[in-house]
Amino acid sequence: MAMMSDSGASRLRRQLESGSFEARLYVKQLSQQSDGDRDLQEHRQRIQALAEETAQNLKRNVYQNYRQFIETAREISYLESEMYQLSHLLTEQKSSLETIPLTLLPAGAAAAAAAAAGGEEGGGAAGGRDHPHQHHQHLRGQAGLFPAPGGGPRDGAGPGEDGKQRTLTTLLEKVEGCRHLLEKPGQYLVYNGDLVEYEADHMAQLQRVHGFLMNDCLLVATWLPQRRGMYRYNALYPLDGLAVVNVKDNPPMKDMFKLLMFPESRIFQAENAKIKREWLEVLEETKRALGEKKRREQEEAAAPRGVPPAAAAKAGNPFEEEEDEEEDEPAAPEAEEEKVDLSMEWIQELPEDLDVCIAQRDFEGAVDLLDKLNRYLEDKPSPPPVKELRAKVDERVRQLTDVLVFELSPGRSLRGGPKATRRAVSQLIRLGQGTRACELFLRNRAAAVHTAIRQLRIEGATLLYIHKLCHVFFTSLLETAREFETDFAGTDSGCYSAFVVWARSAMGMFVDAFSKQVFDSKESLSTAAECVKVAKEHCQQLGDIGLDLTFIIHALLVKDIQGALHSYKEIIIEATKHRNSEEMWRRMNLMTPEALGKLKEEMRACGVGSFEQYTGDDCWVNLSYTVVAFTKQTMGFLEEALRLYFPELHMVLLESLVEIILVAVQHVDYSLRCEQDPEKKAFIRQNASFLYETVLPVVEKRFEEGVGKPAKQLQDLRSAARLLRVNPESTTSVV
């Protein structure tokens, strides 16, 4: 069986592997040849086993190929590293030879250099191939041809712009993934060296890196241990957004400095104190040179093109010599007037002190320094040194503003309430950005309110959830209003308008959550009325600080309350029509005195004080069950609707009451006309009298008490002896 199975599997494999295999035709033939479901199941299992075997073979082959690929890639990596080093060496030799005039070399050296150049250009002549080692050693012996291996080239010490560019290109061939970032014309390498990066909080060593300082940016690359002399791109920082801070030695942590790039910072350790000092000096020099270059470019861009201003003045003034003689004398006093003393130590160290304050999150100290500088320079001229200082300080102000804006961003932690934002808001206001501070403060508080509402746990009981929702929202709103009044007391009054707009937006957020829980879940009218009452009570607490948002909550809830009143009205009308369809016009028998006493209490609660006259002997009531149920339901609807009432709902409530009452009086009127039995007709008249003379006056009085003014529509209903003529189309569905 095993042999047959193996042979069958081999035959099946060959059949599936054949080039002319067609799946559809194969399945068709298999279906025709099989005896039944069992054969197809067995064949399916064989194909499944063959698929699993094939998958295992594929995995095994892939694994073997992967191992070979890794070994090959490792060999290629070693070879690539050697090729990069060889290319770098050849490029350095060629660059050095090109920068030294041949006439300055001795005869032997000139001949060797010419031979090397000729061999390189000619594709490798015999003289360049015979003794390459001797030739390389000879070139290395020439002083100044190669940069020192420790620190790299310094700005101004290189062989010229072309040589700087070639040096940058050669060194960056060692860094993977950065060539596309360094394609700016005029960019060159200033300094480079090995560093060790440390973690900022716990000062734990992170990794070895190599820094490449260009004339406009700093490139940080990490070591590749498996590839000698090669690096991988890590980060690129523009110099105009980079601050350098010296880190004091604290053994065993020494020879360190910090780079600040908003919103992050990195700490590096140099090999020794000398190299650390070189890094600090060259970074400051390069930043200063970049700032001077940008300033000159801005001045050139601002100046009119064509003839320089001085030349234009000379060309257009025929009396130049006379005016020059007259103006030479007062020129000195003007120069003396424009001088501003910037030699004080605190002014010289101001940019660095601002960097330290920003890095240490001492925002108050930074703004104090800025205020001190502004007071000192107030009413003083602005010669170039002052403008240069202003440019440096403005850059720090921008960085400080960015940090403060980040502190107020909604992405930051929202814990701590509105007071947690006071520090950043107050410093932004001191920087003259009160409007921006107001916008960021309100945006932060909106995110906090939204988060608090989302985190509120939805309880099973709607009223309990609404109590929690109102407490969370209105407490946050009250705290925000008080903090806003504290922070922006002395600012432009336009900020208060922004707060009112924000409060309305926040109220909309609250009403969305409120309506979703109360009205969308189809709660009863009594529950909805209680929830709205709770919301109004909390909203009135804002009056303690002079903020009345009751009209806003009314305007936002009016549509939902209208929908609730309409839905409950339809429920009452349907229930009344259903009872009318089963009306037999019989007296109620409550069976027990307790039940009769309970009904009397309910009627008294509804405002029907004269219900005693409609009770008979024992437990009988001389009214129909339909009329009594209608009375209780209508008065209940009126009470709950009055709890929800505000002026925008006046007509909705009145029209709903009229519709409900018309259903009952239409039925009584129709029954009175159609009934032939004298006893039943007298009983119907008694029920009609109860509706017209007792229930409707109570409804009218209670409506006037709740609203504050009478309703003419209800008076018209009561004053008519026959409220509505019978409409056969409307009564056929009732009777």
From TrEMBL:
Composition skew (Gly residues), residue ranges: 149-160
Similarity comment: Belongs to the EXO84 family.
Residues annotated as domain PH: 188-288
PROSITE patterns xref list: PH_DOMAIN
InterPro entries to which the protein is assigned, alphabetical: Cullin_repeat-like_dom_sf (IPR016159), Exo84 (IPR033961), Exo84_C (IPR032403), Exo84_C_1 (IPR042561), Exo84_C_2 (IPR042560), PH-like_dom_sf (IPR011993), PH_domain (IPR001849)
Keywords, sorted A to Z: Exocytosis, Protein transport, Transport
CDD domains in alphabetical order: PH_RalBD_exo84
Organism: Pipistrellus nathusii (Nathusius' pipistrelle)
Pfam families: Exo84_C, VPS51_Exo84_N
Composition-biased stretches (Low complexity): 301-318
Localisation: Cell projection, Growth cone; Cytoplasm, Perinuclear region
Acidic residues compositional bias, start-end: 319-339
Entry function: Component of the exocyst complex involved in the docking of exocytic vesicles with fusion sites on the plasma membrane.
Annotated spans, Disordered: 116-164, 290-340
Membrane-spanning segments: none
Gene3D superfamilies hit by this protein: Exo84p, C-terminal helical domain, Exo84p, N-terminal helical domain, Pleckstrin-homology domain (PH domain)/Phosphotyrosine-binding domain (PTB)
Name of the protein: Exocyst complex component 8
